[in-house]
Write a structure and sequence with these properties.
This protein is an alpha/beta fold and 413 residues long. The chain has a domain at 3-42 and 102-179 and 290-361: 3-Layer(bba) Sandwich (FAD/NAD(P)-binding domain). Helices cover 32% and strands 26% of the residues. The chain has a 7-stranded mixed sheet. Strands 8-2-1-12-18 form a 5-stranded parallel sheet. The radius of gyration is 21 Å and the shape is globular. Bound molecules: flavin-adenine dinucleotide (FAD). Flavin-adenine dinucleotide (FAD) binds next to helix 1, strand 9 and helix 8. One of its GO terms (molecular function) is monooxygenase activity.
């Protein structure tokens, strides 16, 4: 295989371009938006994804841009500790876990793609509308999304669809699938500069499945000033119909959800104050899609959210897209035949990612918060009366295995 078209210049698409370029494939990325901007708020990169980015030579950039997450703590809605575990290097992994701004990560990747593959390797303002697999190559047609103007066609030996949760390519193969599945929960995400909490590198989750707060700092520059740029996510079960189309950049008024969190001042973290002090807040319905029976069709395959959108639980969205890119690169290296390479990638990645989709529907590692809420809705004096240490450990370890980052296995790589 000599050439590849990657559809979508998000996290998955750009890492795929870097990885395939490293395996000697000539890659062009086609992105729908005219200008790629540093959009989004915080995400987490788990150690297995950081390994892939480190092998791609991005270690120093990550160090400069992300906070190496030191611990993860679950607390109940009164701020009392349920579970604490070390994370990343602190937990003995060979690679850190990073809490990082999604848009800044995308800019690191974009810069690396342009430096290594050339400025013209990323073609913006090109929205894929249709494609044809002749058996020898793939032809793709593009338009300007805003005007509908036809921009012409491009060919390559294979096409990798990393075009996100509303993937055109997935819709082509599964036309009856319909919109993403709504969990009944809404997420509001924002960024707030505040005094550091706990270690200053801690990630916390408070509450239970119907009302939750997640918070973690994401900016080393702010940390250097003795402050924290806290990425936070407030989550509520609202039920009913899915709000209009899922859009990461839909800004909303905090009064929509702030009253529900009015009493969540834990002393070490004043949740209502953090929400009040945020500038922009974005709303997103928590959605996923059912796992698919097939990603690869001849010379075309799906990757990242196009292949396996999942609830944003357990820090997996971006990390799993990066693992896909790694597996695809490895499969291409090991298989001369393009169709076999894409099929081998599907075989490696389809089942593990489906397992995460299912685990996240049951709250993933956050299951412990729900158990404690159900057993002690008015709070607890002693956690031992509510849940045993063994039960807590079992749930945490099980999820690490499902998501592919249990320390012993990963450190052997
Ligand atoms: C603007 C934006 C902001 C986000 N913010 C957050 C966040 O704050 N927190 C979080 O956890 N996750 C966020 N996500 C989602 C997160 O990036 C993904 O879940 C994860 O990184 C997997 O990446 P992906 O590459 O599969 O998909 P994405 O990162 O969603 O990338 C898909 C890309 O494909 C492009 N695209 C779509 N359709 C076409 C088409 N027909 N032709 C060409 N290009 C197309 C899109 O413009 C986008 O750049 C955001 C996604 C986007 C697009």
């Amino acid at each position: 295989m000599k050439t590849a078209m990657v559809i979508g210049g998000g996290i998955g698409g750009l890492v795929t371009a870097l990885k395939l370029n490293r395996e000697g494939v000539s890659v062009r990325v086609f992105e729908s938006v005219g200008t790629i901007k540093a959009l989004g708020v915080g995400i987490n990169l788990l150690p297995h994804a950081v390994r892939v980015l480190t092998e791609l030579g991005l270690e120093e950039e990550l160090k400069k841009t992300g906070i190496p997450t030191a611990e993860l703590m679950y607390v109940n809605k009164f701020g009392k500790k349920i579970w604490q575990e070390d994370r990343g290097l602190n937990a003995g992994y060979r690679w850190p876990q990073y809490s990082i701004h999604r848009g800044r990560l995308q800019m690191i990747l974009l810069k690396a793609v342009k430096e290594r593959l050339g400025e013209n390797a990323v073609v913006t303002g090109h929205h894929l509308t249709s494609f044809h697999d002749s058996g020898d190559n793939v032809t793709a047609e593009f338009i300007t999304k805003r005007t509908g103007e036809h921009l012409g066609s491009y060919h390559a030996d294979v096409m990798i669809a990393a075009d996100g949760i509303h993937s055109v390519v997935r819709n082509f193969f599964y036309p009856d699938e319909g919109p993403p599945k709504f969990s009944g929960r809404i997420l509001w995400r924002g960024l707030t500069e505040s005094t550091p909490f706990l270690t200053g590198k801690s990630m916390i989750m408070a509450g239970h499945q119907d009302q939750k707060i997640v918070a973690y700092p994401i900016c080393p520059d702010t940390a250097a000033k003795g402050r924290s740029l806290v990425n936070w996510i407030a989550e509520l079960t609202v039920g009913g119909e899915m709000p209009p189309r899922a859009d990461w950049n839909h800004a909303v008024d905090k009064e929509k959800f702030l009253p529900k969190f009015a009493k969540w001042d834990f002393g070490w973290l004043d949740v209502p104050q953090v929400i009040k002090s945020a500038t922009d807040i974005f709303e997103f319905p928590m959605v996923d899609r059912d796992p698919l029976p097939q990603w690869t069709f001849g010379r075309v395959t799906l990757l990242g959210d196009a292949a396996h959108p999942m609830y944003p639980i357990g820090s997996n969205g971006a990390s799993q897209a990066i693992l896909d890119a790694d597996a695809l690169g490895q499969s291409i290296l090991e298989n001369q035949n393009a169709e076999l390479a894409l099929k081998s990638y599907e075989q490696i990645r389809m089942e593990p990612t489906a397992n995460i989709v299912f685990a996240n529907r049951k709250n993933g590692p956050e299951e412990v918060m729900q158990i404690v809420e159900e057993r002690a809705t008015k709070g607890f004096e002693s956690l031992d009366d509510v849940i045993t240490k063994q039960e807590l450990e079992k749930i945490a370890n099980k999820y690490k295995k499902v998501a592919g980052f249990d320390r012993e296995t990963l450190n052997q790589k």
